Amino acid sequence: MFPRLRTAALAALSALVTVLALAVGIPQAQAASSLPCDIYAAAGTPCVAAHSLARALYSSYNGSLYQVQRASDSATKDIGLLAAGGYANAAAQDSFCAGTTCIITKIYDQSSRHNDLTVEGAGGAGAADVGAPADALPVTVGGHQVYGLEISAGMGYRDNSTSGVATNGGAEGMYMVTSGTHVNGSCCFDYGNAETNNKDTGNGHMDAINFGTECWFSPCYGQGPWVQADLENGLFQSNAGYSTNSSNTGTGALPFVTALLKNNGQDHFALKWGNAQSGGLTTTYSGSEPTNASGYSPMHQEGAIVLGTGGDNSNGSIGSFFEGVMTSGIPTDAADNSVQANIVSVGYGGATGSTGTLTPGSEISLKATTSCCTSDYIRHQNNTAVVSAITSSSSALDKNDATWIVRRGLADASCVSFESRNYPGDFLRHYNYQLLRQPMTGTTQFRQDATFCPTTGKSGTGTSFASYNYPTKFIRHYDYNVYIASDGGSNTWDSATSWTDDVSWVVSAPWAP
């Protein structure tokens, strides 16, 4: 067998072994022995950039993944790995940031090119960005508790002085693992090649993956979000700009998505996506460079790397980022497929390994104790918290909506916050006293609104949860909605009738598997 084929075969076998091990519950201390950048190198298209907050992207990598800065004293700390080729040492972040908050100030490039990303400066379309909150996107990967990068409007990262990244019509490939649950239609949640001066310098000067619900060229089919190519002055789903593939209705609200773009820089680009938790890749477009305007064939890439904004720092977008790489040359489809298999094998969003308690990391469901409603659980529905009956015959979606992951209190580590099981980075928080499911923004207000302090159930049964910033108000169900409520007050949901029962909850095993 030729060396390159032998390496690819071993990589595929390693990914399969890891998938089977995860399926039967064998813990994986490290990722598969051949990781994405090993796979691409073996295919002759080495990584020139490799960024991740969650894990190593080379089996031999044992350096830092990212840097955090804490608010209390502006000190910084590099967050590394538990082991070479393994997963992030998130506990080091938790310890360093205890009692204060941290932002992410740098994302290290794991390749030998050292194309590190730092907080983006001002550009042609946006003021200087700010760093993302370091604890906004907790997630389980490979059975380990780590963090992703959650971008809100006004956040972004960039490197304008890179090494090895394609320029002036060079060929390249790239992918990122993102989320279909945290998106919007504003410009532009991108990862990839951009201008070196933070300005729009013309058609073809960008070559980046875009992921969101912005339809630049009509028609777009479905509701999105879509994997598109930001080639500057357009988000392209085809050479015509608009979608020529009516079956490409977007990824929907998948919690983890692999988004992939390949471009030979001359006359061809391709777009693919896949569920990062299962299955393979789907090609939504493969054909010529854009033909609806000049400047794209050949391309005119400048070689900067951008994450979370457009090339001119258009920074109104939101998005999630877990890992991504850029390559020199166009990877083969076989290499892409092996990388997707490896991504699936690590188990993004898998079970935390703990259930039914208020220990951080435990997965739970919260059951009502009022006599009327002992089959009802807190769940999110259209972004709002409600109570509804959940049984063994309920749909998988309903069971997921009624499952929460206990996290350290975002405002006080002695209390708790509740992250949605199927909307990574979304937390249960109160707003105008009603409970909602919303993405964590990092603001003090959000942190306080999403923090609840457990105490013995007011009825003498179960547990009651006091609002951190309204300590006399407790999580209560009332008329099937969920509020923070006092025992008697001016709001209808403050009614003293059955208040002690309505604010008492059983912390139970999660409905989601």
Automatic annotation (TrEMBL):
Domain Alpha-L-arabinofuranosidase B arabinose-binding span(s) in chain numbering: 367-507
Alphabetical keyword list: Glycoprotein, Glycosidase, Hydrolase, Signal
Pfam families hit by this protein: AbfB, ArabFuran-catal
Signal peptide segment: 1-31
Stretches assigned to the Alpha-L-arabinofuranosidase B catalytic domain: 36-348
Domain of life of the organism encoding this protein: Bacteria
Protein family membership: Belongs to the glycosyl hydrolase 54 family.
Official protein name in the record: Alpha-L-arabinofuranosidase B
Organism for this UniProt entry: Streptomyces gilvifuscus
